Amino acid sequence: MDKSFWLDRWSRREVGFHQARVNPYLERWWPQMQAPSGSAVFVPLCGKSLDMHWLREQGHHVLGIELARDAVGDFFAESGLTPRVTHQPPFERWDAEKVTLWCGDFFDLKAEHLARVSTVFDRASLIAMPPEMRPRYAQYMSSILPPHAATLLVSLTYPQGQMSGPPFSVSEDEIRNLYSDRYTIEQLASIDVLDQNARFKQRGLTELSEQVYRLGPRA
Known about the structure:
Layout: H1 3-11, H2 24-33, E1 40-43, H3 51-57, E2 61-66, H4 69-79, E3 84-88, E4 91-96, E5 99-103, E6 117-122, H5 134-144, E7 150-157, H6 172-179, E8 183-192, H7 198-202, E9 209-217
Parallel strand pairs: 1-2, 1-6, 2-5, 6-7
Antiparallel strand pairs: 3-4, 4-5, 7-9, 8-9
């Protein structure tokens, strides 16, 4: 899956993955992350997620990375925030009141971009990637995050043969294979959400569940 796929989705505003409310798992499990007050929180492949507003309201500085300029522009236009836009190749950087969004490729991020990050909220990036991309993503994420940073990760599982992604099904076993060399992994919840997702039922799914994990840095 190449960059043009996501750029095209945003240009056409085919963004069914965008949630119209703050993610309930973020609200429920964020206190368990014990993110220091005022610390920076990283939201990968952030789109125009309302979760970033919620994190900002908790007192955090939100750092996001997003490929599609349309998504970044929509986030600020819909938020009422007026960003300052600067060119910091290979990124375009948008800043406004405790929000910094880098417009560009996730794999161009460096450790210095995330040096202040205490915690990551990953709702949709892992499940947006096909299987062959996920090991590279997980390894690269681990390499650029500060050693102490923990992650609240939301994943999705369903019989992959019943539907082509994205979103893709990512099992607990795969998550452990991807991350257990650096993190302790605790599943916080597993929720059956098929009845809440009629569009996926229409695509033929007979099972659909969401999982929430806490990835804690190993000592």
